[in-house]
Amino acid sequence: MNMSPSFHPDGLYTDFYELTMAQGYFFNQLHRRPAVFDYFFRRMPCQSGYVVFAGLADLMKALEDFRYGPRQIDFLHRQGFRDEFLDYLKEFRFTGDIYAPLEGEIIFNNEPIVSVKAPIVEAQLIESLLLNFLNFQSLIATRATRVETTLKPGQTFADFGLRRAQGTASFMASRAAVAGGASGTSHAQAGALYGLKVIGTMAHSWIQTFEDELTAFRRYVEIYPDKAVLLVDTYDTLRSGIPNAIRVAKELEQKGHRLAAIRIDSGDMAYLSRRARQMLDDAGLDYVKIISSNSLDEWIIRSLNLQGARIDSFGIGTKLVTSYQCPALDGVYKLSVFDGHPRLKISEDVAKISLPGDKQVWRIYDDNGLFYRDAVILADEDIQKVETVYHPDYAFKNTRIAGLRAEPLRRKVMENGQLTEPLETDPYRISGYRRSRLALVPPEILRLENPHIYKVGVSRRLFDLRHNLIAGYLNAGK
User: In whole angstroms, how far apart are CA 164 and each of 161, 204, 206, 321, 329?
Assistant: First the structure.
């Protein structure tokens, strides 16, 4: 897998303050001290009860290219960085360890999803890159999954979002959409880059180019006799578009071919699709599929299906690749250990107080084999000896997990800057793993609206460490 030809992240793919801090670490002789940073998010996006983890393989590839060559060094020199620090950056390589779930894993808020263990300068410089890749792809994969959960058996959807995507983010959006369940993409270059199925029909301009709609349809099927999808709403869907499509389909049958589908891009989709299905069936064209597009999302698709719409496939654009209603996942990256000592961030907002220490995350299963709790414990703890997990702020909110099956949520994916094993890069295989994990999520968490809140708890040792550090910091400030 290669990154887009128009998109080459390097050592400057970071916020400027990461670089100013890095130089500060360097001249304070702190730059080689070990640190642990945790990536997590606090709030669920778009009323969702879960998030699909995505973007890891792209992130690992980007870390390989995270370098400071002559062009980057010259830029930083012009920003006033000192020569000694720039000499250090010339030899920069990421040499740390990274712990993460597999792509496609179902994850939840307020748990350390990814941990980076590296010299403080290295861990700091990759912060923005990591957040940018994981936040965006996880968000889009989650939105795509929510679309998938609203589909009826046999229905599919595809990414049609290139023209409204935010620049080259379109590449990652298409990848994440397929990892989240899309059958393919209209984005040809993303298809080539990631091995995605590319999907395309026609625009209204094709119809308008010819003297009439029937001629436009006939010319198109001459070129694509076995996979033509005819856009039927240019002039009048029911009185012109569908009757002309039926006529052309019958002409194709006489030549031994079949029309693949019609597409409706405007109007009352529920009503028009029902009428279209009836007209096609009455003409003996029950094999012709109906595709719908135009400002769709999971809520609209659910509504269409509840109204009895007869749609076989959906093309979803703007609202998927931009996550229109909730355009960001609020993932953060916080220092939890420095030079062997646990660290945490204190905030007036209790929900923003982080979890200190080097940690592991365990997924706990109930007696039916479904996800039950996620347990965040210190790295040197034995999960078999952790009998109860606690709300990070309130000890009276706790759950007993003794005797239940547990598995580590994360694995070491990078050691000393090198992958520990090949990562899955095929978005379709990632999607298959995602489906297998989604099948283990209690159904009440998958609700489109007002989902049940999945519980993430901490061990008693971690609970006590956190509250002792808070008390110590507050007392030291008096």
Answer: 6, 18, 21, 8, 19
Architecture of the domain delimited by 142-321: Alpha-Beta Barrel (3.20)
CA–CA dist 97, 112 (Å, integer): 15
User: In 3-state terms, what secondary structure has residue 129?
Assistant: helix
What burial class does residue 61 get, using C-beta atoms within 10 Å of its C-beta: 0-12 exposed, 13-18 middle, 19+ buried? middle
0.85 cut: is pTM over it? yes
Q: What is the Cα–Cα distance from 142 to 149, expressed in whole angstroms?
A: 11
* 261-264 and 229-231 beta bridge pairing: parallel
Domain ranges in the chain are: 142-321
User: Tokens 């879960």 — which residue?
Assistant: 50
For 353-391, the pLDDT digits (tens) are 899 999 999 999 999 999 999 999 999 999 999 999 999
For 78-99, write each residue's pLDDT tens digit: 999 999 999 999 999 999 999 9
What whole-number distance in Å separates Cα of residue 22 and Cα of residue 11?
A: 12
Q: What is the dihedral of CA 101, 103, 106, 112, to 10 degrees?
A: 30
Tokens of 254: 């006489």
Strands (E) located in 339-404: 341-342, 359-365, 371-378, 388-390, 398-400
Query: If you write DSSP's letter for every residue of 439-461 in order, what string do you get?
Result: TTS-GGGS-SSSPPPPPEEE-HH
Helix (H, G, I), strand (E, B) or coil at 134: helix
Kindly state the tokens that stand for 78.
Answer: 């012009």
Sign of the C-alpha dihedral computed for residues 22, 26, 29 and 32 taken in this order? positive
Nearest CA among 262, 327, 325 for reference residue 292 = 262
- The 3-state DSSP class for residue 424 equals coil
Say how far apart CA 331 and CA 139 lie, in whole Å: 10
